[in-house]
UniProtKB/TrEMBL annotation:
One of its GO terms (cellular component) is cytoplasm. Residues 28-300 form the Nucleoside phosphorylase domain. Pathway: Purine metabolism; purine nucleoside salvage. The lineage of its organism: Eukaryota, Metazoa, Spiralia, Lophotrochozoa, Mollusca. Belongs to the PNP/MTAP phosphorylase family. It holds the Pfam family PNP_UDP_1. PANTHER family: METHYLTHIOADENOSINE/PURINE NUCLEOSIDE PHOSPHORYLASE, PURINE NUCLEOSIDE PHOSPHORYLASE-RELATED. InterPro entries: Nucleoside_phosphorylase_d, Nucleoside_phosphorylase_sf, Purine_phosphorylase, Purine_phosphorylase-2_CS. Keywords: Glycosyltransferase, Purine salvage, Transferase. This is Purine nucleoside phosphorylase. Its EC number is 2.4.2.1. It comes from the Eukaryota. It is an enzyme of class 2 (transferase). It comes from Mytilus edulis. GO terms for biological process: purine ribonucleoside salvage.
């Protein structure tokens, strides 16, 4: 009997079977659209669109900028499945639940996973609108373990470890049919795909806004205090967000090739004198502004 955190191998394959009954496509590439980046879904040709709430056992998206639809079809001739809307731990889902779609993608035959997100720039050299190829990550959630105090805290100068942390997505009993108990995470982000992404960006004339860096995932939904941004910078992070790492780990757990990009939608504040408030609306607006560039980049890759 399955004693771990769900979903079981059988449930994942049951969901995949249901989806196979709703679409003729058998994708090998999976794409996850970050906040405000779902427009790529409009470019999928001859699409079969399946809302999450019509898929048994599937969590639904609750965040503005995430439509909550799976899009199957063709992108430049390649058969893809695209998540137009991802799931975040801060929505109230346990971490494992946010990655059910990634497990299902693998069961559908997906071998390569392209993750996108909106992120705050921690590296002071990064500007709003920059595109960062994810070279590596920090799984803050996994490093810090499960914290019973998760949630927001509105004092001005504090480090809210509860808000920063969550739990490692691979916590719980391990089913070897998915992957190994202990996962080596060196080399999570695929070098060859990163090279390809960099080449594509340069060919599109995006070289000036192209960065490479380390993405750190925090639990959210609070944006960072100044003290937290400083902490993350000292940890070696270049950009911070509330997603992606769990998906990457689950993808790697199942042997998928993983690569990804972050759109820097705001600069995190490292100084009290210049500190300004970040909003989700601002994040979505920058996503809109860079939508065409990101879509061109995804197509070229
Ligand atoms: O889904 P992503 O990681 O792109 O979304 C980021 C993190 C929060 O969900 C949201 C904050 O504006 O954008
Ligand atoms: N944690 C975090 N996530 C983001 N997503 C988009 N911008 C940000 C940010 O500044 N911080």
């Amino acid at each position: 009997m399955w004693m771990g955190q769900g979903p079981s191998y059988e449930e994942v394959h049951e969901i995949a079977k249901t989806l196979e009954g709703k679409t003729k496509y058998r994708p090998t590439l999976g794409i996850v659209c970050g906040s405000g980046l779902g427009g790529l879904g409009d470019l999928v040709e001859e699409a079969d669109i399946i809302p999450y709430d019509e898929i048994p056992h599937f969590p639904v998206s609750t965040v503005p900028g995430h439509m909550g639809k799976l899009v199957f079809g063709k992108l430049k001739g390649q058969i893809v499945v695209l998540m137009r809307g991802r799931l975040h731990c801060y929505e109230g889902y346990p971490m494992w639940k946010t990655t059910i779609p990634i497990r299902v993608m693998k069961a559908l035959g997906v071998e390569t996973l392209f993750l996108t997100n909106a992120a705050g720039g921690i590296n002071p050299d990064f500007n709003t609108g920059d595109i960062m190829i994810i070279r590596d990550h920090i799984d803050f959630a996994g490093l810090s373990g499960e914290c019973v105090l998760r949630g927001a805290n509105d004092e001005r100068d504090h480090i809210d470890f509860a808000g920063l942390s969550g739990e490692c997505v691979l916590r719980g009993a391990n089913d070897e049919r998915f992957g190994p108990r202990f996962l080596a995470t060196v080399g999570t982000w695929d070098d060859a795909m990163n090279e390809l992404a960099e080449k594509a960006a340069k060919e599109l004339g995006l070289g000036d806004i192209l960065r490479r860096g380390v993405y750190v995932m925090i639990g959210g939904p609070t944006f960072e205090t100044v003290a937290e941004s400083r902490l993350l910078k000292n940890f070696g992070a270049d950009a911070v967000g509330m997603s992606t790492v769990a998906e990457a780990l689950v993808g790697r757990h199942m042997g998928m090739k993983v690569f990804g990009i972050s759109l820097i939608t705001d600069k995190c504040c490292l100084d009290y004198t210049t500190a300004k408030v970040t909003t989700h609306e601002e994040v979505l607006a920058i996503g809109q502004k860079r939508a065409k560039d990101l879509q061109s980049l995804a197509l070229k890759i």
